[in-house]
């Protein structure tokens, strides 16, 4: 505790503002536990950048922690591109302090001689990714905490290709940040280097989104959509993109249309949670809509609900939407003639059905670690290949490569195109998904997330993952474990034969068990939240669509059995 108090007292110098010093002095005198939580470590970059609770402290999001990260980035840019006129674009979402913190970030960049394009108001993360290349910038920054609770904010850094920073740049930037003290931050802005941007970039982004997501589907006039931005940024883009693509029957949930960092109508602004779309689903039932779409605060994730075989609205998971979107895009490419260099992408904890589909179409399925930064890197690493589309189980998808991160704007349009065309053909989004199961195998997944907050929670998460590794699962629902994939050691081992294979991906704290019947169980800590996540996937053959209900029930029972077996 002495070292933590010493770290806190280092924030009592004249460099820090009066309000910050007053709050720290109060914590030292009255709340040592809270002081410990705020200063026991520095915020770290995870799979989605730096994200945390707002407030005073080294383990909090504030002008100093963001300022230090921005100073480190500025130093790195000046060292890496010494002869360039450096340019960085900044966007921010609806969260508390995002506007003011983004201004601080712009000022630090400008103080280091870097030209800054800052959006004049909140914008989506996919538009920020697009803007990096559109404006020929060296980097981009978005202030967002995605779908985290209201007390969070965050900071994601993008490189010149429009994708999030990846090796080696990420490690080198972090090393530069770690070498600095807070007193190294240059806060004195050069306002001549800060330029406000808005409609010109909006227009370019909307046009590209429609170009990539619109396939001239039939039946748009008879297709009803209910859309909710869940108080986030997508209200600035999705209604307009749908309108330009020809959708006229779009009902926006007005109670959730106003950007609001408190997210007052939901427990969590996360479209993965059924409760977040409850208001939109109720409206869909009322007006007999065909589809519900909801997005997270920065509009990179989308949740979709469609009518199931009983005509009821059912929320699909990220794997289900990813599968059908990818099949649709592959069909479009196939109709034009596949050239043999196409690939789709997914992650190690997403449905194995993506690989089965790729094999059926004769294209490659590249699999990455969790996080769209790795999918964006694939596009950069394989310039001679054509990226069709790809996603991950956590409700993210990317259509083509004009955006280099998950993109709920274009993906929303794509989902509507698929569903409108299916309805015009006498089918539905849901029935087309069932047809995928018949064609490629019926894969079904389940995710269990366990939240452990604070310093003690971080220790609990480490222990849970340690136990999962040191006490190996030997069988799952009667099927013997065949392979154990340890991404910390980069070794995949066949526990039946002793055979070992190297895993050609960066090291990561992920452990995956695969059984003889193809059931997979993965465990990993979240890179952006105080959670440990367990991903389960099982599969079987679906001979014909008419058997869907009974087979679906069997897979549900098996997944519930796995949860019980693992005591989750």
Automatic annotation (TrEMBL):
Gene3D superfamilies referenced in this protein's UniProt entry, alphabetically: Alpha-D-Glucose-1,6-Bisphosphate, subunit A, domain 3 (3.40.120.10), Alpha-D-phosphohexomutase, C-terminal domain (3.30.310.50)
Ranges of residues in domain Alpha-D-phosphohexomutase alpha/beta/alpha: 44-182, 214-305, 317-436
GO molecular function terms attached to this record: isomerase activity
SUPFAM superfamilies: Phosphoglucomutase, C-terminal domain, Phosphoglucomutase, first 3 domains
Enzyme type, top EC level: isomerase
InterPro entries, sorted: A-D-PHexomutase_a/b/a-I (IPR005844), A-D-PHexomutase_a/b/a-I/II/III (IPR016055), A-D-PHexomutase_a/b/a-II (IPR005845), A-D-PHexomutase_a/b/a-III (IPR005846), A-D-PHexomutase_C_sf (IPR036900), A-D-PHexomutase_CS (IPR016066), Alpha-D-phosphohexomutase_SF (IPR005841)
Keywords of the record: Isomerase, Magnesium, Metal-binding, Phosphoprotein
EC number(s) from the headed UniProt entry: 5.4.2.-
Similarity comment text for this entry: Belongs to the phosphohexose mutase family.
Name of the protein in its database record: Phospho-sugar mutase
Organism: Croceitalea rosinachiae
Upper taxonomic lineage: Bacteria, Pseudomonadati, Bacteroidota, Flavobacteriia, Flavobacteriales
